[in-house]
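hey can u check if this looks right to u? its 451 residues, i copy pasted from the old doc so theres a chance i mangled smth
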Amino acid sequence: MHSNTKESLIDFDRPVPRYTSYPTAPHFKPDVEGSHYKSWLKDLPDGSHLSLYFHIPFCPQLCWFCGCHTKITKRYSSVEDYLSLLIREIEMTADLSAHSGNVTHMHFGGGSPTILKASDFSRLMGSIRNAFSISDGAEIAIEIDPRQINEAKVAAYAKAGVTRASLGVQDFDQRVLESVHREQPFYASYESMKLLRDYGIRNINFDLMYGLPHQTTETMKQTAEYTLLLNPDRIAIFGYAHVPWMKKHMRLLPEKALPDAMERLRLFEVASKIFCDAGYIPVGIDHFAKPGDALAQAKEQGRLYRNFQGYTDDKADALIGMGVSAISRLPAGFTQNSQMLAYRDSILKGRLPKEKFFTLSREDRLRDDIIQSFMCKLSADVGHICQSHGYDPRYFSKEIDTLKPLRNARLIEFEDNGVINIVVPQAARLTCAAFDAYLQPSETSRHVTAT
């Protein structure tokens, strides 16, 4: 990226959503006892492909960069109590939806799913298999904290059918890690990968971050090179979102050591070049995959999709989220679970723990398709997408006019046939924001800048 292009991007930079959904979660509305969710589950057609997400909202230690819904606990009894609640939610959900079809994808996130003891993870998987029909060849993915892994846990994952593991690496520079309260030596990641591969879990993702305190282009270069030594199948490099007004623990970070906007762009560029030079395929705005990986193939075949877990080749008919704060997407719309106290109260009273919902309109689906195209393909034929939804191809002429400054700055380009291309990946979210009917200037505190 040329320096003048970087400067242009920074000039346009502003807080916008990450667009893991459209509409985004702040626009979901209060639900009443999960009434929408119940009817939406019951309406799923027989033969539907289901994707399941399970949220484990606990960590033994707080990382100061964390923006997730998690709770720090030293008492394992709290985890055991929560697991019993989650299993009950699984059973209640299955009573309404299990007839609909087969599960083709599962994802365990957090928090730290690796906080579960091996026996408890096996118990959880047993409950899921009793409740749902799991397809042969289903992808079962788990997020892993390398500091919490042992052989018993990995053996339990393998026996349960886990096929993919995402390691929370973040960075390999010890000064950087110490500054964010996450001391994690290189050998922890190495030993985790060796254990996983020894037990046949060979699809490995690395999650890295840029924009952390004390990161420099030199430390990022070293982190990227260490990453290549461990040879993961996929690499995600997420921009750190500094929102101390929302997450008070972020005030503990040494703010003066945070890289500025220009340096953040350089950090991403350095890592991106190293991964691409090593043969990884760039996917979306912040993922990289080996050419033979399913994510790279999905990109090549136009099947790439974006949801709350990031980029995926999973486009099941319904994503059902279970656990505290988990979000579901069904054909009719979105629902979100409640936070811990309300979640516990609902489950103990035999109610589904739904707190919010959003029913998708015809126009929402149109805008979602355009935003998905920009985020996944870095390109969108807006007129053609409008026609496919039964809209006039000029429906978004006003929105397209607002993009002209980005075009003039060479961050995006307009083709003669009406296709809009993203030239600089970090401009994708800015472009999507032009098609977001719900985004208001007053929402800036909820979001982070595009860079």
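The mean pLDDT is 93.
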